[in-house]
Amino acid sequence: MALSAFLQGMLGASSLAIGASVGVFLKPNRGVSAAIMAFGSGTLIAAIAFEIASKVYQETGFLPLVVGFSLGGLLFTTLSEFIDKKGGFLRNPASSRRYLLEHRQEGDFNVLQRLATVEVMQHLPEPEKEAIASLVTPLCLRAGEVICREGEPGDYFYMIAEGEADIFKGVKHLTTLGPGEIFGEMSLLTGEPRSATVVARTPMELYQLTEENFSRVLARSPHLASALSRTLARRLRLSVESQVAAQSNLERWQRQVMESVDLNRLILEDPATLEGLVKRSTPVAILVGTLLDNIPEAMVIGMNAGTNKLGWSFLLAVFISNFPEALSSASGMKQAGTPKHQILTLWYGVVLLSGAIAVIGFLLQESASLQVVGTAQAIAGGAILAMLASTMMPEAYELGGSSVSYSTIAGFLLGFLIATAGS
């Protein structure tokens, strides 16, 4: 029977290898990936409800169910956070994003503090602020230094943290900019040469964004685009001689800004950022983290191998749900620059280890009391729910939006049919 548990554990996890192979060698469509992931989440939720929670409650009562699910969720969340800190966050896109947002470098935090007074930064969401802070370059200038000259190509965008700058059109002084104001954005948006010369009036602290990084941030930050549009509107109304020309230019520039916004792409998909993630990741921690995501399922399969209490219906639900999990993770690791052979070795290794874990589950149910086995299954159920809530479901929604609701419902109904057919 131990061999049967091993084979069933591998069978349930075998879709991990299939999903990883698809994710490595193909480029799945975002919508398709989202639908598959949501469908798998639905089937697994149904399996947890009808194949674990219901049967544990019938055999051991409500208390072991509550204790087990609570403990399972706590254990999974705690261990997952620990493994992420040790370098295992790259095992799936959701944990990669979570790690990046929670572990910003101290230097970025200091930059955010210095840029707190800059008008266009004040109302941006925190992730967008953090993305910009990681890309800017600090500059310290002496009074009298020329920052940019009229007629030169516009290749930088500037935000003033401290000090003042004079704006000249030829020899005519137009205005003075102070802390919290910006300049240089018009040339970057229009592609035209600098329209004025900017000279430091006092010692200054500036933050500079290159043309490439400016375009990259703008394409992913609708809030920054909106803030720049408001700034352009105010400047044009104050400085352009013809109101009609001003409105015409404003509409054109606003259209250019908003058309460049791509809501389907994330700052975290930036190659430089992903390269940094890979450097911080640890292969052993990735393996342990990936295995952690699949231990509960393999344990439940092993504890019920060869019994009539729960078997092939749960196994099928696990098989369906594992495919999108590996598909998403392998695709994300590939995008981050992890070698293909390393990704495939990881997931095929997890399939073998899942078989071994199923054997451990089988040995547990052979030697332990009904109460202990029921509590252990409840712990596994809580851990599976925690995994779904922290990885698969957020990833599915991010990729597909509200449309994933239908796939989740379809998956749940199929899981219900599987569970009732197996009972």
State the helicity in percent bands.
55-70%
Coarse morphology: elongated
- Strand arrangement, largest sheet? 1-8-3-6
Mean pLDDT level: 78
- What class do helices, strands and sheet pairing give? alpha+beta
Q: What's the end-to-end separation, in Å?
A: 21 Å
How large is the count of helical segments? 16
Main pleated-sheet profile? 4 strands, antiparallel
Flag low-confidence runs: 240-247, 256-272
Number of strands: 8
- Percent in strands: 5-15%
List the secondary-structure elements in sequence, H or E: HHHHHHEEEEEEHEEHHHHHHHHH
Radius of gyration: 28 Å
Q: Which descriptors apply to this entry?
A:
elongated; four-stranded antiparallel sheet; 16 helices; alpha+beta; 9% strand; 423 residues; 69% helix; single chain
